[in-house]
Amino acid sequence: MTAPEGYIDAHCHLAAKEFNQDITEVIERAKQGNVLAIVAVAIRKDDFHRILQLSSQFPDIVFPSIGIHPVQGEPPDGQRSVTLPDFTDVDKAIEENQERLVAIGEVGLDFSPRFAKGDEEKKEQREVLRRQIELAKKYDLPLNVHSRSAGRPTIDFLKEHGAEKVLLHAFDGRPSIALRGVEYGYYFSIPPSIIRSEQQKLVKQLPLDRILLETDSPALGPEKQERNEPKNIHIACDYIAQIKNISTDEVMKTTTENALRLFPKLRSLMHR
Length: 272
Hints:
The chain is an alpha/beta fold. It is 40% helix and 16% strand. β2 (35-41), α2 and β3 (62-66) form a beta-alpha-beta unit. α5 runs parallel beside α6 (175-183) and α8 (233-244) crosses α9. It starts with 6 loop residues before the first strand and ends with a helix.
């Protein structure tokens, strides 16, 4: 079955407070920009209700992914490494909403020194991730994965614990590590910040059949200090086409096919 014409934003934070005032306009601009689907991911439990609410409010374009991020608390000063108590009732929420979810996430590891100050923090992060990998296997859902300053440990941990359906978003590790993930069948999503980031080296080496598009809105936009939103996804598509010396249509078509392969529920949900 051929993919529909348009973009899929595989990783976006629509529950972020930056979108509280104009979410309807943001969604409308996304539609006008030929965005077919937005996978809305969670950071903390507080996001779950909002993400599910948005997927009910915009059922033809917003699709929910819930899970616990390795960094919890409010930026800039309240952030900390995830702990096991943060995971309380997450499994219950995923079980209750499994039919609606297109993925589990945002999950992963973050070994940035300001969060993972020692082995204990890293150990708890791994245990929270392990529990979410088990839930993904139990409910046959893909994982939407964060891996800042932990590219190799994240990919190795996912493989070790049997994760098969994986999207590594905004991967900041070395291309050689990413290619190990490609060998395992994992996918990588590229945001609009590609135009100003080291990810250009990664895109050159990743095969197109393992690339998805994302915005990570409201972060990782083309301009560092400006709010990003899903309509900017074409910027990532255009730049990937430039790097790989292929047409933007080929990048759009292939990345959408890849997203529908990784998130198979999207195909039916998009046409309800």
